[in-house]
Amino acid sequence: MGKYAIVALEMNSAIGTELPLRSAYVETDGVIVPMRYLLSSDPYEDDTGRTHMTSFYLMPTYLMTRNATLKADFRGSRRDFSVMTFSPGYLDPSAPAFVRLDEYAIPMEPDMKVVTEVLMREYPAYFS
Q1: Is the peptide bond before 107 cis (omega within 30 degrees of 0)?
Q2: pLDDT in tens, 50-99
Q3: Looking at residue 111, which CATH number applies to its domain?
Q4: Which CA distances in Å does 69 have to 22, 24, 82, 85?
Q5: Using an 8 Å Cβ cutoff, are 107 and 2 in contact?
Q6: Is the Cβ–Cβ distance between 126 and 54 less than 8 Å?
């Protein structure tokens, strides 16, 4: 997958017009690295009136080995919403070696056929 990971962001909001997200990105050392948007599920409203939606992105794996924060901007006025943080010790020792050990990995262009196959295999509920 060109040293990218698929990230599924499951977001919800009491204000339905905030979804889908405007953008998702990783901030590290003051630099913003946009994540590559793939697709989103159809939004749905739960019993409480909250709108839910899952969006899929590609994120360079090297960012998981840095002091970095995954953030999102909603369509409304909510910006710079912190989703999760990474650090050099974030990855589990059982993570693939190419992710853990290749600290200076430069991502390549992902093979979108492979990305599609992984999405369908790992997230079948969204692609049936």
Answers
A1: no
A2: 999 999 999 998 898 889 999 999 998 899 999 999 988 777 787 777 77
A3: 2.60.40
A4: 17, 11, 7, 4
A5: yes
A6: yes
- Angstrom distances, CA of residue 120 to CA of 5, 24, 48, 100, 124: 14, 21, 30, 25, 5
Let me know: does 61 contact 107? Beta carbons within 8 Å.
yes
Could you tell me the residue range of the domain that residue 43 belongs to?
Answer: 4-126
**In one letter, which amino acid is 77?**
S
What is the average per-residue pLDDT within 31-48? Answer: 95
What total number of domains does the chain contain? 1
Coil vs helix vs strand at 31 = strand
The percentage of the chain sitting over the pLDDT mark of 90, rounded to a whole number, equals 71
